[in-house]
Amino acid sequence: MVGLSVLAAGCGGDSAPTAPAAGATTTPTTFTVALEPANEVPAVTNADASGRGTATIALIVTKDGSGNITSATANFQITVTGFPAGSTVTDAHIHNGGAGSNAGVFVNATLTPGELALTNGGGSVTKNGINVPSARAAAILANPAGHYFNVHTTLNPDGAIRGQLGAGTTSTTDGAAGGGY
Predict the structure, then answer these.
(1) Which of 93, 105, 127, 178 keeps 20 to 30 A from 111, CA to CA?
(2) Omega into 133 within 30° of 0, i.e. cis?
């Protein structure tokens, strides 16, 4: 699965990141998260219980010469399958909460209802260049398992499928400058 797209600040957009200042470094970290209805709190047991998905999130941070994060963006690639025909995805977010707990939206993927079309119960969408506040990017990198990603549907407005960024996910860091998918 190429890409990434799941970190989005509550007021994020699809703007392209700017070039880092002299002496700054840009580093992407990618999380691949398996999304399951049983991970929701409480677990989803209605018609969406057959849904599954994967979110690949690339968090791209720019650090100054002292190693402080000065800016960050996220790219999200979200793929879902197994939902009932006609299901509508209403949103997707990163939340700052551990396994077994619910928490508020931390980074919004900026989906609009119907943008992730579920033709025959499945589909995918990519959202790139979502602005992430520096402090939130630092918190995610410091404790990925303390953050989860979930996808919301009309039937399950509090979340239909979910996975922790750190537990049971794949995380890679590429030390090369740049980033994006």
Answers:
(1) 178
(2) no
End-to-end CA distance of the chain: 10
Question: Tens of pLDDT along 52-99?
Answer: 999 999 999 999 999 999 999 999 999 999 999 889 999 999 999 999
pTM higher than 0.85: no
**DSSP sequence for 133-179:** -HHHHHHHHH-GGG-EEEEEESS-TT-SEEEESSTT-EEEE--SS--
Q: How many CA atoms lie within 13 Å of 15's alpha carbon, on the beta-carbon side? A: 10
The number of beta carbons lying within 10 Å of the beta carbon of residue 52 is: 15
Could you give the CA distance from residue 99 to residue 118 in angstroms, rounded to a whole number?
27
Enter the CATH code of domain 25-172.
Answer: 2.60.40
For residue 177, pLDDT beyond 90: no
Structure tokens at 114: 């119907």
Q: What is the pLDDT of residues 163-173, one digit of tens each?
A: 999 855 555 55
Residue 141 near residue 61, CB atoms below 8 Å: yes
Distance, CA of 32 to CA of 28 (rounded, Å) = 13
Q: Quick one: DSSP state of residue 66?
A: T
User: Do the beta carbons of residue 51 and residue 89 sit within 8 Å?
Assistant: no
Farthest-apart Cα atoms in the chain, separation: 53
